[in-house]
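[agent] plan:
  1. take the single chain provided in the ticket
  2. run structure prediction with default settings
  3. attach C-alpha cells to the ticket
  4. add a short note for the reviewer (M.T.)
[agent] executing step 1
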Amino acid sequence: MRVLSIDPAIRNTGYAVVEGDPARPRVLTYEVIRIPAKLPQSAALAAVRTHISHLIREHEPDEVAVEGIIYVQSHQTAIAMGAARAATLIAAADAGLAVFEYAPRKVKQAVVGKGTADKAQVAFMVRALLGLAETPPADAADAIAIGLAHLQASDPLRAKLLSRRQV
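[agent] step 2 finished; step 3 output follows
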C-alpha cells in the first residue's frame, strides 16, 4: 500500500509518501510545503491544494492519511488549520482517494509509544524506525508518523490499537 500522509497547515504543510506494511515500511519522499507569509490566506490555501494535487499525480497513492483536528486555544488558529485541512481533503477528493484521519495523540502513541511525545521525539523515532540518514524537519516527520500510523491501522492484527476515521 502507498499512502500520502499530510500534516496540514497554511504556511508549513508536512507531507510524506510511505509504502509497505507495518513490519517493513519505507518512506519514498518527504518534505515541507512552505508558503510565504506575504501571500494572502486564500492564495496560500490554493497553493496547498495545488501542491497536494501535484503530489497525488506524481506518486499515485492508494490512500491519504491526515492529522485530525487538534485543540488550540486561539479560534483564529483553529480556523486557519481547518482551512488548510480542507484544502488537503479537496485535493484528495478530486483524485477520488479515500482519506483517513488520525488524532495527533494516537499518531504519537503509534510511533513513539507515548501520546504526549513532543515533535523532537517524533522526529527522532521516525528517523530510527526507518533508518534515515538525517532527521526530517518537524512537520515532515509528523507527516511520516501519520503515514506509519496509517499502515499500522490498516493491518488487521494491529487495527484495534489505533483508531482511524474515514473522512
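[agent] step 4 note for reviewer: Residues 75-94 form the longest helix (20 residues).
[agent] ticket updated
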